[in-house]
């Protein structure tokens, strides 16, 4: 069958529901731009000299003195195409995209010569904060040319990344090992310490300092296993150790001869103390939990501070004094854009009719469970408790106090670093015997505040080997349980057991009720940047199982690493449609498909491949089955921020329900920014909804209102969330697929499984697939 081609749909109009307001957005209007052609040249320089990041040539051999430079005209970029696009008179063309790329180059060229630059962001050492281990956080600024209706805008935002601290390498080694100063290294390095240091500094660029007249640059390959006093090499036909060599050759007596050397070439050894770390080197490894937490603290800015810092960035960029902008006839406003927005009305949430307060209309995007019963509570009758801690740390009495009153589930003990499968099987059998059932419902696992490895192993074994739901709790919460924490745990347990926590009243989900409608959320989780080339990606599809969209089932797949298209989507959609039919006996007449994690450059490819797969899934179930499909991409990885002009919530963020669908949105395609959640820390990031295809005749109001209302029925908490739940669930399910895999890229050698099994994941046991086990 010939592959159908699609076009991204146009905006059906602007929404008008809600209270009109004005907000600021971190966009700055391009007030003047040239209409003449821009000429694009390709420049090649031969022979090539490889420059490492930070424009530092690494010493290997002397670079050539003669170069051949070739300048070739590549194309004329007709700016008129861009103006046609901005005024909705033509679609995006290659020439139009080149014009936007040219603007990005023009605004970034001058700054990239002054500061380290990564794609659209540049970083400055001003205000850098030392983290630990010789790593520091640098403040950066992101800038990008963005099209809007009738104009170009420059999106400016804060950015941050980690750099190695410049200076003596030996100081960095001390910091990596958590020591106060190099003096604390006098005991030498154990094998474990040496391996830890080597892993951190491998590929780091350094400069030697023992010969001031000839400072050379190198890249570290590894550390010697022997100290400088015992590391020898051949010189003039005899062996000499590094310590003696530096004394004889440079009259330099080593202070730390008991420490290893860095190897910078096959037989070139440098003592740690004669090496300095070259400045402006990004830390490219995956940040561990501690570094990630510290980086989050560094980047977290409340809205007022963030807006002020963006203006600081504007001063550094200095568009007005930029010679390159002047040469291309560009001028940029210094004022942050004031845009039209609306605050959508808050929906009403339905709980069980017997609740003292069975309907609630939240205030400020949050509420609680006081005087409320879940809409459909599951009955918990067969379970056990598995405690990965000893009696002294957590006695049985504390566990019984935390557990459901008047029930006495068996309590088992397990070793957190022992045989987890054996422990869980024991708990499963004890629950089975105590309740006299064929299949127990749940194992409550109490964890000793350990890392993620124990949690991952519990989930993998319980869901793919045993076939029982688990609820993990950190032991710290057992000793002094808070009501809100207990409520959230109960919400998760209820849906894992097949219950439903809350609904939206019918008028808020009219689109779902008018005709049977299935909501689907899809996401792909990719390997980390530091994972090896064979690490796979994990895809998840979560589909609603009833008309009220209060229960979801997940389909999981593993696929080639880095592949954004969901390869087996046809079969995953088929599984979701079958689950919907088996649960409520209805065939969906409409599919609302929310897709997470797709960049603009991938829109057409994802739309064509995945929409084709959805249709094929429908046809495979029944030749004449053709439900109406709406395909919406949801983006969170963008740099748009909204700032209230008057009011705002208690954190200084815009109020939940703030929606923007003009002024900074696409010139003519159907998109909007929706801030659906209440701010907690820092500046809230709105979700960007991009409608690529629509057979359901959505106007702006209907899709904006439905998407916002759905954010109030996320099953894990009593807060409106930042994304529609089907996408949130897909994200959780994709993370769970990674846990189910025998190959998990956690940036440690010991955690990596057999690479031959990288294309498989453990299959979730039958009964669990019908419930939201991934919560």
The total strand number stands at 35
Number of helical runs? 18
How does the overall form come out from the CA principal axes?
Answer: globular
Q: State the strand order across the main sheet.
A: 29-28-27-30-31-35-34-33-19-1-32
Query: How is the biggest beta sheet arranged?
Result: 11 strands, mixed
End-to-end separation in angstroms reads 40 Å
Radius of gyration over C-alpha positions, nearest whole angstrom: 30 Å
Highest CATH level, the class of the domain at 503-638 and 685-742 and 758-766: Alpha Beta
Helix content: 25-40%
Which fold name corresponds to the CATH topology of the domain at 503-638 and 685-742 and 758-766? Nucleotidyltransferase, domain 5
Mean pLDDT value: 93
Q: Supply the CATH architecture of the domain at 503-638 and 685-742 and 758-766.
A: 2-Layer Sandwich
Secondary structure class reads alpha+beta
Give the percentage of residues in beta strands: 25-35%
| Uncertain runs | 746-757
In the CATH hierarchy, what is the superfamily of the domain at 503-638 and 685-742 and 758-766?
Answer: Ribonuclease H-like superfamily/Ribonuclease H
GO molecular function, one term: RNA binding
Family: Belongs to the argonaute family.
Protein name: Piwi-domain-containing protein
Pfam family, one: ArgoL2
Written description of the protein model:
Helix 1 (79-86) packs across helix 2 (94-112) and helix 15 crosses helix 16. Among the domains are: 167-277, paz domain; 377-497, Response regulator (Rossmann fold); 503-638 and 685-742 and 758-766, 2-Layer Sandwich (Nucleotidyltransferase, domain 5), CATH 3.30.420. The two termini are 40 Å apart. Helices cover 27% and strands 26% of the residues. By secondary structure, it is an alpha+beta fold.
